[in-house]
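User: Please predict the structure of the protein below. I'd like the answer in structure-token form so I can feed it into my own downstream comparison script.

Assistant: Understood. Taking the following sequence of 707 residues as input:
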Amino acid sequence: MSSPSFLRGGLTRRRFVTSLAAGGVATAFARPALAGVQQAGAIPAQAATQWQLTVAHTHIEIDRKSLKAPCIGGSVPAPTLRWRQGDTVEIAVTNHLKHQDTSLHWHGIRLPAQMDGVPGISFAGISPGQTFTYRFPVTQSGTYWYHGHSGMQEAQGLYGALVIDPTQPDPNACPRDYVIMLSEWTDVDPQDILNTLKMQSDYYTFRQRTAASLLPDAKAAGGLIPALKDRLAWSKMRMAATDISDVSGIIYSYLLNGQAPDTNWLGLFTPGERVRLRFINASSMTFFDVRIPGLELLVVQADGNDIEPVPVDEFRIGVAETYDVIVQPKANQAYTIFAQSEDRTGFARGTLAPRAGMSAPIPPLDPRPVRTMVDMGMGTMQPGQSMQTMQGMPMPPHTPMATLPAAPHGASAPQHTHAAMPMAATPHPTALNTTAPVPTASTPKAKPLAQPDDTMDMSGMDMSDMDMPGMDRGGMSMPSRAHTSTAAHSPHAMPPSNTTSPMAHRGGHTMGHHTGPIDQAAPPATPSTAPPLLQVDDPGPPPLNVENQNIAAMPTDRLGSPGDGLEHNGRRVLTYKQLRATRPGTDPRSPTREIILHLTGNMERYIWGFNGRKFSESGPIRLKKNERVRFTLINDTMMEHPIHLHGMWSELENGQGAYQPYKHTLIAQPGAKLSYLVTADAPGMWAYHCHLMLHMDQGMFRTVIVA
């Protein structure tokens, strides 16, 4: 990963993936392990504490696309590193690139800030000819990854897997254990891709809606008129309902363990044995929907942390996320690992088989998703539906929100509805025809907090093509909720930043070990009879301007939805609501502060940010050491954003009570809102950003200072 363009000294995101084919030479030599050839997807036989990695340019060709790639050991992906929880590791990284600085970031690893590997934020980077030694204790276990954080080198192949053994016996140990790294490969320079998107944001978006697709759309919308109104609404906003991914299979080849679909990576098994597959999405811009036709997937770990097993047929993995699944193929046959891109313009593919030379049929791509009113942030309203049909519900009484009683730990986060219209945001319907079992939480949900009646003018939002006779479009109002808070703590009221530190290229999340989310103990909780007051830092919905193209008037809770294109497909698909940790979280305290952030952007101009402002216009988010904070994200855009906070865990508030999952990367779905808790127990300066490389580069980035 790299630092955004405004911080060119620092890292940018990923650079494109290279082929490991049958096996790559690991010039990442460990001083005992990893000497010699490491086969793609294989895990070193033993953990090691000392590693020597060399970053250099290597000419690599994959799928007839050649690139002089910055990589480790002449291979893409880089060699898999195996550590052991409780050890202290030393990784000496030497830069043999002639004219470029480099760096490595340990994604999801809890470590001192100066070891996080983000140039301009946590250290100066590694100059050509120089060596930097990372040294830190390993306090967790699970599946993670590492990648470059300079000059978009990550997107060109500078990334690899991390496997950390737990100190206690692993409950998910299997006779076969493979890493499955998903990524992209192209011979187009990432900066050229960005320049193209700045000139024409839909340049790589093909398969758009045409006259031929109008009849199917009309059938789905319940008539021709609603379908036409829907198209006109999207056209008026200068957006495309089929603009799922900024960059598509038109220039990307999708890789599995560095191999193109035609190369067909192979993992062997003996019929009847359990096989663990550690999925890592190391791509720069692509979400993948993963399934293995004929096999049930038992999801046992998310972002390095054990969860109660969830049996599914399919799961979506966002950029930078990891999921461990267990399969048990019983037949003497081959099975296809099929990972299609969310926009359905291509796929990565591998094979599980009892012997070499076998392959299985490749399923066809699913129909391409189409964005809806839900993705616009208009709740469950359908095209052509009148707002009058949604009126009649009384508005809640006014309650000042500068100080509110905090919801108990484990309770659902307050539901912040932006519309001042008499309606409440309705949960997005579950997307499964056949629902996978959802672990239940014992902790009851807290009641939604009442909303203030302060309003914000939305007269700039042109919704004339939408049939809303019950809404005053010229003066459509929404709660501003711009509550006062201490200036030193507010991340929203900061003046434009003059900081010289590079925008964080992508950071190291803090991940937990197999047996629990965090090995380090959180600050002790003090019992109290009343919950602490909750200070709310909320600037309200951002204005519509050159940096913000849309406002989600009715953002919905989409934790029970698997995502666009996966709903009602006849398969059991994993949702965030199903993630339940195997043991309680380490910090039972209720939050004392809530920070509300809007994810904003202008797709036409290709500008991204938080609260309608780019990184260069924003100050840092300041947290007190050991403070317990709730972050609430409201996605005003019509794209998914994988949001990553370095250095600390993000405890997703998904209704699982004390067993809420700890993650390092959270997917904010379009038009949705979600909340998570953070214990600020890691002092220092950390990166906080969208993990879509080009979004981060163009402004969706902040720094978080813990002191």
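That's the full token string. The helical segments are 190-199, 214-221, 224-236, 373-376, 693-697.
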